[in-house]
Write a structure and sequence with these properties.
The chain is α/β, with parallel strands linked by helices. It is 44% helix and 16% strand. The chain has helices at 16-27, 40-51, 67-81, 105-133, 145-148, 155-175, 200-203, 217-227; strands at residues 6-11, 30-36, 57-61, 86-89, 136-141, 180-187, 238-241. Strands 3-2-1-4-5-6-7 form a 7-stranded parallel beta sheet, sandwiched between helices. The protein starts with 5 loop residues before the first strand and ends with a strand. Bound molecules: NADP nicotinamide-adenine-dinucleotide phosphate.
């Protein structure tokens, strides 16, 4: 019998939550394609960790908001590792922090482009490929901000994450008959370099019912489960992993 390989593209896999997802997927038997924007050394370090348990891995520079770059990412993935069976849409940026009245439009535009257009472009390409090659699974990384709204912090960012929730629900219904599942993980406040104030996860700990911010490794298991056959009947789900927020 031919071995069924899991080949999963993780955007923003060079650090933070994306890097934890890459490591977890490798441990769970996936070959991994790491998409990263600028930090090649960080991406290569994660790739070395993915290869350690014997999995295959390539790191590919990509701006997920650029259609041609997204096509190159998926073409490289297929050429180097074979048909793509999974996509984790994870690469995201906050844009400006503060009140909307003070927000710089170019920063807001880049958050919209990366967090919304970038997810749509990657999902579009994944769906095209997976429809041809026998199906697969997509996990979008949203945020608890999608339902909290993030007043005073970044309302525009929360709006992009609400768009991620909505595209998950719609696309899940659109491609279910093609053998493609689409789900979402919505993290709360996680210790990564994402935050403009690096101590924000500590500062906000008392506002979180569980009493602390989360670690990237507390997100990656949920992603791996949604990609796995154990989640074969889950599609269109938004799984909140946010310490009660
Ligand atoms: P992070 O530490 O800032 O890492 C962001 C990653 O995205 C990096 O690998 C970065 O690549 C990549 N990236 C950024 N812009 C890109 C682009 N245009 N094209 C390709 N890659 C790009 O962020 P994180 O905290 O791990 O966040 C990951 C996801 O979780 C994001 O979608 C974020 O919105 C979401 N999230 C985070 C939190 C949190 O508290 N941390 C909470 C809820 C949701 P380079 O390093 O090469 O620049």
């Amino acid at each position: 019998m031919k071995e069924q390989r899991n080949v999963t593209v993780v955007t923003g896999g060079s650090r933070g939550i994306g890097a934890a997802i890459c490591r977890r997927l490798a441990a769970d038997g996936h070959d991994v394609v790491i998409g990263y924007r600028s930090d090649a050394a960080a991406a290569e370090a994660v790739a070395a960790e993915v290869r350690e348990p014997g999995r295959r891995c390539v790191a590919v520079p990509v701006d997920t908001a650029d259609e041609a770059a997204v096509d190159r990412l998926f073409e490289t993935a297929a050429a180097e590792l074979g048909p793509v069976t999974g996509l984790v849409n994870n690469a995201g940026v906050s844009g400006p922090n503060g009140r909307l009245a003070d927000a710089d439009p170019s920063g807001m535009r880049s958050a919209l482009e990366v967090n919304v257009l970038g997810y749509l472009l990657c999902a579009r390409r994944a769906v095209r490929d997976m429809t041809r090659t026998g199906g697969g699974a997509i996990v979008n990384i949203s945020s608890a901000a999608a339902t909290l709204g993030s007043p005073g912090q970044y309302v525009h960012y929360a709006a992009t994450k609400a768009a991620v929730d909505t595209m998950t629900v719609g696309l899940a219904k659109e491609v279910a008959a093609d053998g493609i599942r689409v789900n979402c993980v919505a993290p709360g406040i996680i210790w990564t370099e994402f935050h403009e104030d690096p101590q924000r996860p500590e500062r906000l700990a008392t506002t979180i019912p569980i009493g602390r911010s989360g670690q990237p490794e507390e997100i990656s298991g949920a992603v791996s489960w949604l990609l796995s056959d154990d989640a074969s009947y889950a599609t269109g789900a938004i799984l909140r992993v946010a310490g009660g927020l």
